[in-house]
Amino acid sequence: MACRRCARVWPMGQARCDRCGSRLLSRDTKSLQKVWAWWIAGVIAYIPANIYPMLMTNTLVSSTESTIVGGAVEIARYGSYGVAAIILIASVLIPVGKFLAIAFLAITAQRGTNVAPRSRTHLFEIVEFIGRWSMIDVFVVAILSSLVQLSVVASIRPGPAALTFAISVICTMLSAQAFDSRLIWDAVRRDKPRKTP
Ligand SMILES: [Zn+2]
Questions:
Q1: Tally of structural domains, the chain
Q2: In angstroms, what is the span from residue 17 Cα to ligand 1's centroid?
Q3: How many angstroms is it from 30 CA to the middle of ligand 1?
Q4: Highest mean pLDDT of the ranges 20-29, 155-164, 174-183
Q5: Residue 130: inside a domain, yes or no?
Q6: Would 66 be classed as within a structural domain?
Q7: Within a domain: residue 8?
Q8: Which end of the chain is more exposed for a tag (fewer CB within 10 A), N or C?
């Protein structure tokens, strides 16, 4: 097994790395616990992200607050269906899909399912890849508010939902990162060793 700090390889069973003194661990035994802890934190943070306003728009005559879904509906009403679709995909479809995918991976790993390990590994890779693009909504709010701040007659400020949405995305990313994809293959190896030429 390799030392996590200095990458020197040691035989199995050795407790500490003789080179750098770091503790040797072949596996993170609390992987699934960490996955669930971050997952629950992410789901909790996602609730206020949908209830509280994402954008607070102030003009000379009126001030409006819009949530994620409400904002997308409003944008669609003005005819920008593409932008509305991007917002809905980035802030509803992808986060919810990620929650479901991570929960599915963690549950099947916990139960030791050996069904379709290849597809599940692929699913995990997709979840990890999507992680870095999940902040689109926060970027949109940041760009909008900085652009509109420049004008005197109107201002757009990010609402509390922008913060909790960002927290939710970060928690989900950490949840996916805590998942050890080798867990998917444990059950498979136990059942039938793969033939090597
Ligand atoms: Zn070391």
A1: 1
A2: 5
A3: 21
A4: 174-183
A5: yes
A6: yes
A7: no
A8: C
Q: Is the pTM of this model over 0.70?
A: yes
Give the distance (Å) from ligand 1 centre to CA of residue 116. 35
Distance, CA 167 to ligand 1 centroid (Å)?
Answer: 34
Q: What is the CATH number of the domain that holds 52?
A: 1.20.140
The stretch 48-74 carries a mean pLDDT of 84
- What is the CA(3)–ligand 1 centre distance, in A? 5
Query: If you measure from the C-alpha of residue 147 to the centroid of ligand 1, how many angstroms do you get, rounded to a whole number?
Result: 50
Residue 22 lies in a domain: no
What does the pLDDT read at residue 62?
A: 80
Query: Distance, CA 178 to ligand 1 centroid (Å)?
Result: 22
For the cut 60, the answer to whether the pLDDT of residue 193 exceeds it is no
- Domain extent at residue 186: 31-191
**Residue among 54, 84, 59, 12 nearest 155 (CA):** 59
Task: Please write down the HEC assignment for all residues of 133-168.
Answer: CCCHHHHHHHHHHHHHCCCCCEEEEECHHHHHHHHH
